[in-house]
Amino acid sequence: xxxxxxxNQITVPSVADDLGRLFSEAGFELHxxxxxxxxxxLRRETSDLDFTTDARPEDTERLLRGACTVVWTTGAEFGTIxxxxxxxxxxxxxxxxxxxxxxSRNPIVRYGDNLTDDLERRDFTINAMAVSVPxxxxxxxxxxxxxxxxxxxxxxxxxxxxxxxxxxxxxxxxRFAAQLDFAIDPETLAAMRDMSxxxxxxTAERIREELVKLLLAPDPALGxxxxxxxGLAEEFLPEVGALRMEIDEHAQHKDVYEHSLQVLRxxxxxxxxxxxxxxxxAALLHDIGKPETKGVTETGNVTFHHHDVVGARLARGRMRAxxxxxxxxxxxxxxxxxxxxxxxxxxxxWTDSAVRRYVTDAGDQLERLxxxxxSDCTTRNKRKAERLRRDYDAFEDRIARxxxxxxxxxxxxxLDGNAIMELLGLEPGPxxxxxxxxxxxxxxxxxPVPRDQAEEALLEWARSEGIGPRPDAD
Length: 474
Description:
By secondary structure, the protein is of the alpha+beta class. The protein has 4 domains: 14-150, Beta Polymerase, domain 2; 151-236, Hydrophobic Seed Protein, CATH 1.10.110.30; 240-409, Hypothetical protein af1432; 412-464. Helices cover 51% and strands 9% of the residues. The protein has helices spanning 14-25, 35-41, 57-65, 115-120, 144-150, 159-165, 168-180, 186-194, 204-215, 220-230, 233-236, 238-241, 256-269, 277-285, 290-293, 307-321, 326-338, 345-348, 352-362, 366-375, 382-405, 417-424, 430-446, 451-464, and strands at 30-33, 50-53, 70-72, 80-85, 88-94, 99-100, 107-108, 130-132, 138-139, 152-153, 183-184, 294-296, 302-304. The strands form 4 sheets. A 7-stranded mixed β-sheet has the order 3-4-5-2-1-8-9. Strands 6-7 form a two-stranded antiparallel ribbon. A hairpin with a 7-residue loop joins strand 3 (70-72) and strand 4 (80-85). The longest helix has 24 residues, at 382-405.
């Protein structure tokens, strides 16, 4: 396919040409737009097929219903009709020339009559290019190809106007910086600094969606730096910017902000099966309790006592405010609360009981916890780093040896509730729960306990607690 403006060759999926012929035969234009064009120029794979057309939504729906196996009209009020066409999900949106109320981010929908006006309302020049189908005429009125070449993120209209229309675009700029390893145009970046407070118009759910996409990028640290440097992070993730604590004159603690970004990168390097959002969130937030817990001893040493506990609390609160799923909140806060427990293992001589408790407390997050603890070692002291690595290798071997003899993933008392009630002569109630918890602690302390020994220990505990079989009735 020839590019009429720059001589580049862009490959258009054949399914796009097939859809284009459908619209052309009906007398309408159809253009492939947005990320699908950008990714085609960059020779990146894309599963998105987004189109724009001069057909009105009712005409688009009519055409798609005659050619698609499924049609969705949930976006019809914004001019978007979607469908499953030749095995591909496609979205077709009528040319737009929207206005914005600049109070919310909701546009006052107004259909346009030309492609250039439609492209101007898009977020960035690299997403404001189009290829007609099936004719393959390339349209780039705002210099998107040049910005791709320069690896630059810039808005088609003035950044002040673009961000006033939709403040979420500021987060998208940071996200694209992380996804593409691009720089943000200075004027665009300045507008992000000046207009960061406008983000308050955006719902927590939409902010979370952009944050997640940024964190799943190849190098999220690039985008996170943009968020912190522009003040955008202060609007929805202030704990990360707060990590930039002043280093005391004797350098008694490392730069916690830079350390956290490095831990994030280390965690990404440890991933086995693609991006892991839970691990990345835990790595980024694992030290957010330090600013609140920083103290200085009489000898001038800097301390951060209980920053793991405080950090877990702060992470729970922030993730809830951003409407993360409950399971994600629990997983991340658990990892943060446990990330310091390993330290000292090499010197303390942990018992098997301590190892069981570590594994049991970590539960299904044990593998992530192992990765987080290893990632947390960012010391430049090679001897210290090697010692920590050896200690954790030994610790994981210890876990594996105990696991070979016991099922540590499902540590339960050696007697179930029915057996407890029968032995102690109890009815269902709180005392049974207390007895069950005692047996679980016994199991953690000793490992698997033969039934007769478990019963003997339970009876002894029950007598000390004033709990026992009821006297036989006459």
